[in-house]
TrEMBL record:
<keyword id="KW-0511">Multifunctional enzyme</keyword>
<feature type="binding site">
    <location>
        <position position="382"/>
    </location>
    <ligand>
        <name>(6S)-NADPHX</name>
    </ligand>
</feature>
<dbReference type="InterPro" id="IPR017953">
    <property type="entry name" value="Carbohydrate_kinase_pred_CS"/>
</dbReference>
<dbReference type="Pfam" id="PF01256">
    <property type="entry name" value="Carb_kinase"/>
</dbReference>
<keyword id="KW-0456">Lyase</keyword>
<dbReference type="GO" id="GO:0110051">
    <property type="term" value="P:metabolite repair"/>
</dbReference>
<dbReference type="InterPro" id="IPR029056">
    <property type="entry name" value="Ribokinase-like"/>
</dbReference>
<feature type="binding site">
    <location>
        <position position="262"/>
    </location>
    <ligand>
        <name>(6S)-NADPHX</name>
    </ligand>
</feature>
<dbReference type="InterPro" id="IPR000631">
    <property type="entry name" value="CARKD"/>
</dbReference>
<dbReference type="Pfam" id="PF03853">
    <property type="entry name" value="YjeF_N"/>
</dbReference>
<comment type="function">
    <text>Bifunctional enzyme that catalyzes the epimerization of the S- and R-forms of NAD(P)HX and the dehydration of the S-form of NAD(P)HX at the expense of ADP, which is converted to AMP. This allows the repair of both epimers of NAD(P)HX, a damaged form of NAD(P)H that is a result of enzymatic or heat-dependent hydration.</text>
</comment>
<dbReference type="GO" id="GO:0046496">
    <property type="term" value="P:nicotinamide nucleotide metabolic process"/>
</dbReference>
<keyword id="KW-0547">Nucleotide-binding</keyword>
<feature type="binding site">
    <location>
        <position position="163"/>
    </location>
    <ligand>
        <name>K(+)</name>
    </ligand>
</feature>
<comment type="function">
    <text>Catalyzes the dehydration of the S-form of NAD(P)HX at the expense of ADP, which is converted to AMP. Together with NAD(P)HX epimerase, which catalyzes the epimerization of the S- and R-forms, the enzyme allows the repair of both epimers of NAD(P)HX, a damaged form of NAD(P)H that is a result of enzymatic or heat-dependent hydration.</text>
</comment>
<feature type="domain" description="YjeF C-terminal">
    <location>
        <begin position="227"/>
        <end position="508"/>
    </location>
</feature>
<feature type="domain" description="YjeF N-terminal">
    <location>
        <begin position="9"/>
        <end position="217"/>
    </location>
</feature>
Amino acid sequence: MKLATKREMNQLDQDAMSQYGIPSLLLMEHAAYGVFCYLMEEHQGKSVTILCGSGNNGGDGLALARILYSFKKVQVQVVLLVEEEKLSSDGKVYYTICEKLGIPIYRYLEEMELVWELIEEAQVLVDAIFGTGLTRPITGSFYKVIEKVNASSAFKVSVDIPSGIHPDTADVLGIAVEADCTLTFQVPKVGQFLYPGIAHIGTLRVVDIGIPKELVSKMSCMHYAIDEDMAKGMLPDRPIRSNKGTYGKVLMIGGQVGMGGAICLASKAVMKVGAGLVTIAVPNALALLTQQKVTEAITLSLPERDGHLDETAATILKEHMMQYSTIGIGPGIGRSGMIQKIMEVVLESDKSIVVDADGLYALKPYLNQLKARKAPIIITPHPGEMSYLSGESIADILAHPVESARSFSERYGIIVVLKIERMIVAVPDGSIYINSRGHSAIAKGGAGDVLTGFITGLLAQNKQPVSAALLGCYLHADTACSLARLKGSYSVLPSDLIEHVGESFKGLENKH
Ligand SMILES: NC(=O)C1=CN([C@@H]2O[C@H](COP(=O)(O)OP(=O)(O)OC[C@H]3O[C@@H](n4cnc5c(N)ncnc54)[C@H](OP(=O)(O)O)[C@@H]3O)[C@@H](O)[C@H]2O)[C@@H](O)CC1
Ligand SMILES: [K+]
């Protein structure tokens, strides 16, 4: 699903007006009607208090007041947060109608105490204060009102975007409405998929406001949400005439003494997403463990020193590498200097590679050579690993995760999967994909290893590495969300993701 920035959304509105002659008032009417339909569906019989700002978002609120009052005689009141002269021209049209209809309009600047009472006692509060036109931090009377809105026990519906959330970055500009539901228009905004925006939007619904479909599909954008439809389109084929070789031969390299679980989890995850064959290359001391833990895999037992893979393992791996299609390296491998040699051999190969965890530490010296490599590389860092690789602070990465992942991906020509609340996949052409799902239930050691396994297993089956990264992220998050719904937020284990990923696959297979 496409995601729009403020500029792209404005352009879309402008194109609808200039190319199709659709007046802005009609778009506003459709926007308001979409909110009206939602209110009738979910909150019929409740009184509605609409808070309106000066821009077109406030205009949407006034248009909604007219529809509620005229069609359903819903008890509706408007709180105007600015002087009426400051309303946008479309907003003024609806303001005049509301006034003539006799809809109660309270002026915040004149009746502050009364407005606070209205907010406190409201059943449904509609936030039409600021939309995509927010330009600076919220202060003064607007701040006070939003503070009161957040303290109210009313059900809160935000029009287009919760007031205070930046539509591109998801930043809170001063303060932001904590909505229970957000009805966004035509195309969701990037800021509705990133933190802290995701903590303010509640349930997100997309309302069609009649912008022609051709314009939306032509709309150029660089941001996409990884959703069910996208994931469905990326399922690898499973033809009748096939065998294990059809679905890729994967070599998983990792493990050190005391860290055997990570490579077992990752390798099992590879098989669970449909790969045909897996070989697990580990230090000698872990060979028995991997055989017992991942029954279906083959174990390649390698020389070790001090519990880590010894650099002589690189020569053995080089001899074996030809027979594999895909390599996953990193889970539990440790940061011994000896891993460097192994990474060198892996990078010299013509195989598709996924690098995770401590493998990323061994990758760093080779970053400048990656663009010249023909076969794809996917890296799956968490913010700490990303910080080590890029030199940015963790705080900066968390503050600008999209830019951080994008610039790294472009600079080195690799696919970056940044593991934050909603995983971000950055592609070297500058495109950004943001996971539409995610759950803190799997913020646990081992969850990253499972993701590495999912992506590696899909990469072995998919021709497109981007698809493997996107589908891997989707399956990981979707399974986590389903498990959290079933078991709650505390007791889901990363190994449960492996156990239950089949249900997520099945959901996609059965989707029409
Ligand atoms: N055809 C369309 O385009 C359609 C658009 N639609 C709707 O319009 C919305 C976008 O409308 P918009 O561009 O008028 O912006 P919006 O967010 O309502 O208000 C901006 C106003 O707030 C002000 N202001 C800004 N920051 C401030 C601050 N911190 N503190 C105080 N004031 C601040 C700013 O004034 P100024 O910066 O000049 O002071 C300006 O007056 C969009 O989200 C959707 O809901 C739909 O109807 C469908 C069709
Ligand atoms: K709003």
